[in-house]
Q: What sequence folds into this?
């Protein structure tokens, strides 16, 4: 069902990853991406894999939940590995039939690619979206981008827009689910028929959804105005996060792993 | 004959995630045909989940749901036919309106049933009349109506399918007393004119005292009581314990009895109270 979408969902918790400063977590995510792309040898890939698994364990999120979030990219994984297996030309021919030649290099490369994409997705979601509440996330982003205010980039407004957008994703999913059920109760059929008739069946869902979105936006704007919201100037935060020792330590660990990966690449 | 019969039903939300929550815990209950049953319970007791099982919007993890003796999950592909047998009106149904005119919106359900135009037209007028929708409103846009009118249009949209069982989830939530009355009177008229079975989910003991025949009370994902309304209101003390309340008038009736006044039997509606007081004054 529509509720099962876990991509980009926050799981409340109290793990080390949950407690890190959001700014640091954004930097860590960039470092993690660097680590994944730096890995070239099998050995360094194994380290990346181990590191990703370690991150999942530290986050305290169940493996089942994390693996479920990979569902949407299974198709991408299959296509990538198929391309690599069938189109890589190497020296070590291991299988040949009609016009299909499969080389050991291709298989090897396909496995590494799948590892790279999955660890990239799992690592970034565990580091950021699963363990950071949307408010913390945009707050961290705002503070990280604060220097851009000097060149008149409306950083606060952008982060507010993002906060609101993120905040309303679950609400909209819930609303869609509710309206779909209501129309199903009136005999709507979303699952059979031609593509055109299925698209038409969505009209009774989309129109109420649009109307309620506009209504919500309007109500939110009124509520904000009632509380004298007037933009970012002179606004202070209720909680200003300060960098802690643990934040610095974690960044150091990531940098060390980066260096180890580069070293491991040489020993391949 | 029971209109709806549930046997050993369990239902869990978001199974396998940190948000897992048991909504129904081995529930077995049956609803009699041809009467109005009130389904009560405080927020999160599982009422709304329960009604979503009646027409197959949700599939129970185990147990069976039977409508007039037929197991609705016998042939999962034909589940849609039960949507027309069990008309389900959701909470705040006015947010599901989408057509250009009120008339078009009410005909959405009957159209999905594949009825011919004259039959659709007849049913739309019939449902509009039951829901006290002025025929002048039929050609208007549903988005130009007042809140109470929208609600009645949405309910008419389900009534136009003429389901044998009509289930309403908080049909009068957020309406003023007059709006509530119009809606409940409409439901009662539907029941008597179509000889239908009605189940109403509600918080309001007063409304249920006035309109229902039997009352089922839910607590902690289970059915806690299920009896005639007289029997249920007699257990006021237990109702209070699970966060519900009996109608204020029922307390008044108890006070009178405690004072030793000759009140024939306990009452819980304003009309019955007036009658009882009348007899008291005449006796003195």
A:
């Amino acid at each position: 069902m529509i509720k099962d979408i876990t991509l980009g969902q926050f799981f409340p918790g109290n793990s080390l990853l949950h407690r890190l400063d959001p700014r640091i977590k954004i930097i860590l995510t960039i470092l993690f991406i660097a680590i994944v792309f730096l890995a070239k040898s099998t050995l360094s890939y194994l380290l990346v894999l181990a590191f990703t698994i370690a991150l999942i364990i530290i986050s305290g999120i169940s493996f089942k939940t994390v693996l479920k979030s990979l569902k949407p990219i299974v198709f991408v994984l299959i296509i990538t590995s198929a391309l690599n297996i069938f189109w890589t030309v190497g020296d070590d021919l291991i299988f040949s039939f009609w016009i299909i030649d499969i080389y050991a290099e291709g298989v090897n490369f396909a496995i590494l690619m799948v590892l790279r994409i999955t660890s990239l997705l799992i690592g970034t979601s565990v580091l950021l979206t699963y363990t950071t509440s949307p408010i913390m996330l945009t707050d961290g982003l705002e503070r990280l981008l604060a220097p851009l205010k000097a060149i008149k980039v409306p950083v606060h407004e952008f982060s507010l827009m993002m906060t609101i957008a993120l905040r309303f994703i679950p609400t909209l999913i819930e609303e869609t689910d509710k309206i779909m059920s209501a129309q199903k109760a009136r005999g709507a059929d979303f699952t059979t028929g031609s593509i055109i008739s299925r698209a038409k069946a969505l009209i009774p869902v989309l129109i109420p959804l649009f109307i309620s979105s506009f209504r919500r936006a309007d109500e939110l704007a009124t509520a904000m105005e009632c509380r004298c919201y007037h933009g970012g100037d002179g606004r202070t935060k209720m909680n200003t996060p300060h960098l802690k020792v643990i934040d610095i330590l974690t960044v150091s660990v990531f940098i060390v792993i980066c260096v180890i990966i580069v070293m491991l690449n040489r020993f391949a | 004959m029971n209109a709806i019969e549930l046997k050993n039903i369990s239902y869990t939300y978001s199974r396998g995630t940190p948000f897992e929550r048991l909504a129904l815990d081995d529930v077995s209950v049956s609803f009699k045909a041809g009467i109005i049953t009130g389904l009560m319970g405080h927020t999160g007791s599982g009422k709304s989940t329960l009604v979503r099982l009646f027409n197959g919007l949700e599939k129970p993890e185990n147990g069976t749901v039977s409508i007039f003796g037929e197991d609705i999950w016998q042939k999962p592909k034909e589940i849609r036919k039960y949507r027309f047998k069990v008309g389900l009106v959701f909470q705040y149904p006015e947010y599901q309106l989408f057509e250009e005119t009120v008339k078009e919106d009410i005909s959405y359900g009957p159209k999905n049933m594949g009825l011919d135009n004259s039959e659709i037209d007849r049913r739309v007028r019939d449902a509009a009349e039951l829901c006290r929708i002025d025929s002048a409103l039929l050609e208007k846009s549903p988005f130009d109506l007042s809140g109470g009118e929208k609600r009645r249009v949405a309910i008419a949209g389900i009534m136009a399918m003429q389901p044998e069982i009509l289930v309403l989830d908080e049909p009068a939530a957020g309406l003023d007393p007059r709006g509530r009355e119009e809606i409940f009177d409409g439901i009662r008229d539907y029941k008597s004119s179509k000889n239908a079975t009605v189940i109403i989910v509600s918080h309001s003991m007063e409304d249920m005292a006035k309109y229902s025949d039997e009352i089922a009370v839910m607590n902690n994902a289970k059915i806690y009581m299920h009896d005639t309304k007289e029997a249920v209101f007699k257990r006021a003390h237990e109702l209070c314990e699970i966060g519900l309340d009996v109608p204020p008038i029922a307390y008044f009736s108890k006070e009178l009895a405690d004072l030793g006044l000759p009140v024939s039997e306990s009452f819980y509606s304003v009309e019955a109270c007036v009658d009882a007081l009348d007899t008291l004054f005449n006796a003195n």
The interface with chain A takes residues 14, 16-18, 52, 55, 57, 80, 83-84, 87-90, 93, 95-98, 108-109, 112-113, 143, 157-158, 161 of chain B (CB under 8 Å). Chain B has eleven helices and ten strands.
